[in-house]
Design brief:
It holds the Pfam family ACPS. InterPro entries: 4-PPantetheinyl_Trfase_dom (IPR008278), 4-PPantetheinyl_Trfase_dom_sf (IPR037143), Ppantetheine-prot_Trfase_dom (IPR004568). Keywords: Magnesium, Metal-binding, Transferase. It comes from Entomospira culicis. With 126 residues, the protein is of the alpha+beta class. Helices cover 33% and strands 29% of the residues. It has a single domain, classed as Ribosomal Protein L22, Chain A. It contains four helices and five strands, in the order E-H-H-H-E-E-H-E-E. A three-stranded antiparallel beta sheet has the order 1-5-4. Strands 2-3 form a two-stranded antiparallel ribbon. A hairpin with a 2-residue loop joins strand 4 and strand 5. Helix 2 runs antiparallel to helix 3. The protein is globular.
Length: 126
């Protein structure tokens, strides 16, 4: 079975949030925050894309956005030139919940918008 989620987010919403460290730690994992920091002035663009990805993941799984620890799902940028797409890393309770699923996401940016599409499908039958 295949599940689909999509979300669209205004990048400008994240510029003021960069100063709210406690909020950022509730939403984003430590690796996402490190990758955002490395982007300097483009950190809000990076975080808006990750927010959209978490929203689209919630929709694909049929979960309420705040019914799980958002920081337990990190969508990380490719670490090598061979990797072409971002990779999900799950930990904690979320890692246990999605272990039977394959999760793929694509991000797209246009102007002030970040868009994410997430596909979730069963890896093995229960």
């Amino acid at each position: 079975m295949l599940h689909l989620g999509h979300d669209l987010c205004a990048i400008s919403r994240f510029e003021p949030l960069l100063q709210r460290e406690a909020f950022l730690r509730r939403i984003f994992g430590k690796h996402e925050l490190l990758q955002a920091e490395a982007r300097g002035v483009h950190a809000s663009r990076y975080l808006a894309g990750r927010w959209a990805a978490k929203e689209s993941l919630s929709k694909a799984l049929g979960l309420g956005l705040f019914s799980w620890n958002l920081y337990e799902a990190e969508l990380l940028s490719p670490l090598t030139a061979r990797q072409k797409k971002p990779i999900w890393h799950f930990s904690g309770t979320m890692g246990e919940q999605v272990r039977l699923y394959q999760v793929e996401s694509a991000l797209s940016y246009e102007g002030d918008l970040a868009s994410a599409v997430t596909l979730v499908y069963v890896k093995q039958q229960i």
